[in-house]
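User: Design a sequence. Structure:
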């Protein structure tokens, strides 16, 4: 049985990944620092759903799930070098899926140091663990935000991404560069996943779907940025998990056709690759809001706002690389995905 470290398991994607992989041939160790960037009660609720009760969690100690025999959890800061070193040394993982990070574009404008601590120093500790206690494959979360000022769409992993417009995006770009360096120097097989606006049950409270659903349910106005002239490639959580699951046992190989005179950003001479995971179908923000209204059976009060610093007007994923690598293409329509989220939300917060 393969042992896998999944970071960020009190978070949205990590929580769902644990529940999926526990059905497969994995022994899972989950890690999270349970910070208060958003409501920690939601984080503890996710952990509880996975059999990790709040009452047994202790900083730096592995605890056993009471629901899944093959799932243990540790509360630990990524930037705690000694703690991370000990975890890798003691557990000797076969795979690592690194999802934990300080998230949020707008929050990076007011608390930049949190992003350096978690997304840079913390990521370095993950890489060092994979270097000194070699793993078969490290999969890590990047973000569609790395496309920054790019205007050519759909966004392709073959495009240059050297113009981020938020510190969050810059740290995710840095993660890709750091992972490539370790793949080159130490042959750590590394795959970066650029997620496009992930949504679904148990989603983050700072994301549009959660904010809009909550406000509309309570009869409060919603802020609609860029006066509604936004498009997002909304990607349902099951599609994200499906992509990750297929990629884990498929570490990247060196690209024999890689040419330093004409370098392909998506591949390398090293065991390294980057994929987009998006729905490949951008949706207008107003259409998104109307779909929420239909699922809730209530109309929204709109507060039209200008574009916010760090935001981009549109995202649109080219996922051909993912299709070619693992024969998988996200395709959940927003009508179904939003209905699933609203059903969860109204039940959970009843």
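Assistant: Done.
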């Amino acid at each position: 049985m393969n042992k896998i470290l999944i970071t960020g398991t009190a978070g949205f994607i990590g929580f769902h990944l644990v529940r999926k992989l526990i059905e497969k041939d994995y022994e899972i160790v989950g890690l999270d620092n349970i910070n208060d960037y958003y409501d920690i009660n939601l984080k503890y609720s996710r952990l509880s759903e996975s059999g990790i009760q709040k009452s047994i969690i202790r900083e730096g100690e592995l605890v056993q799930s009471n629901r899944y025999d093959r799932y243990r959890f540790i509360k630990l800061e990524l930037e705690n070098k000694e703690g991370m070193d000990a975890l890798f040394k003691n557990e000797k993982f076969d795979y690592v899926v690194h999802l934990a990070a300080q998230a949020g574009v707008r929050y990076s404008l007011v608390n930049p140091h949190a992003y350096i601590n978690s997304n840079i120093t913390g990521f370095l500790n993950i890489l060092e663990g994979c270097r000194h206690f070699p793993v078969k494959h490290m999969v890590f979360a990047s973000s569609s935000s790395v496309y920054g000022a790019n205007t050519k769409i759909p966004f392709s992993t073959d495009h240059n991404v050297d113009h981020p417009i938020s510190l969050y995006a810059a740290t995710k770009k840095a993660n890709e560069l750091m992972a490539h360096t370790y793949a080159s120097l130490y042959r750590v097989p590394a795959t970066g996943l650029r997620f496009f606006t992930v949504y679904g049950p148990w989603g983050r409270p700072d994301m549009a779907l959660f904010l809009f659903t909550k406000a509309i349910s309570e009869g409060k106005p919603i802020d609609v940025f860029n006066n509604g002239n936004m498009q997002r490639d909304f990607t349902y959580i099951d599609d994200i998990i499906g992509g990750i699951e297929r990629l884990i046992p498929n570490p990247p190989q060196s690209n024999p056709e890689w040419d330093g005179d004409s370098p392909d950003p998506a591949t390398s001479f090293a065991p390294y690759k980057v994929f987009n995971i998006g729905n490949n179908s951008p949706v207008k923000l107003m259409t998104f809001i109307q779909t929420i209204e239909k699922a809730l059976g209530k109309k929204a009060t709109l507060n039209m706002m200008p574009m916010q610093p760090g935001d981009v007007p549109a995202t649109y994923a080219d996922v051909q690389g993912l299709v070619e690598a693992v024969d998988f293409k996200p395709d959940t329509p927003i009508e179904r995905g939003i209905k699933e989220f609203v059903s969860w939300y109204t039940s959970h917060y009843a």
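The chain is about 35% helix and 15% strand. The longest helix spans residues 112-132.
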